[in-house]
Amino acid sequence: MSLLGGFRLEDEGAAIVLPEGSRRLLAFLALRGRLVKRPVAAGTLWPVSTEEHASSSLRTALARLPDSGRAAVEATARDLGLSGRVTVDIWESRALAHRLLAPESSTQGGDVGAGAVSDLSGELLPDWYDEWVLIEAEDWRQLRLHALEALATRLTARGHYGDAAAAALAAVRAEPLRESPRAALIRVHIAEGNISEALREFARYRELLMVELGVEPTERLHALVADLFDVTPR
Questions:
Q1: Domain 89-230, CATH homologous superfamily name and number
Q2: What is the model's pTM?
Q3: How far apart are CA 30 and CA 24, in angstroms?
């Protein structure tokens, strides 16, 4: 199951088409990641309905699952959850993000590389506006921004400047006004010896802040580039 970049359910590479209510149910169960009481699922997914109508909508969502989709759900009289054979991309990407934010020894072989940038770049269920989705989406946004910045720092330290810049830029695209990914990108340019690129990035960010918010970058970011003006060719 994929939730990053949009909802998609596949079985051995073949897409499974689901009605809207069934899609929302599976996405909810995936984000909870554990067994959920039926009344909790019904009340969360259909919050403005009466308890009776919400329970009916839940039963309908389950009944309308095709056989291949029904195999993804474990259901008892009281609880609902995803089958143990289902994998979900957000689970894997969250685990990656937490490893990158942990001490260096916590990472696995492929964690610090170009593939990680892709795994951390997807938005969670874009264009879904249910309250339970928005809360999870904001949690994921914050986690992946910090993880991308940490990834850029680790890649810079290893001298993998291209991948480091890609990680920092992914965070910049996700939140253009956020200063820390801009600082990470500037550090990549400095480490690679591209002083003009570092100053150009600082100038772009400074102009954006002035236009959008009417403020200057922090003293910390100013200090990062302060010495560069003395070494830039005239």
A1: Tetratricopeptide repeat domain (1.25.40.10)
A2: 0.90
A3: 10
Q: Is 217 left (phi over 0), alpha (psi -120 to 50) or beta?
A: beta
Beta bridge partners of 75: 80
Tens-place pLDDT, residues 77-89: 999 999 999 999 9
Residue 82 parent element (H or E): strand 79-82
DSSP letter at 8? B
Residue ranges per structural domain of the chain? 10-82, 89-230
Please state, in angstroms and rounded to a whole number, the distance separating the CA atoms of residues 79 and 94: 25
Tell me the C-alpha distance between 52 and 64, whole Å.
18
Q: In whole angstroms, what is the distance from residue 108 CA to residue 220 CA?
A: 32
Rg of the chain, C-alpha, whole Å: 22
CATH number (3.40.50, 3.30.450, 1.10.10, 3.40.1350) of 10-82 reads 1.10.10
Fold match, 10-82 / 89-230? no
What's the pLDDT tens digit per position in 27-75?
A: 999 999 899 999 999 999 999 999 999 999 999 999 999 988 899 999 9
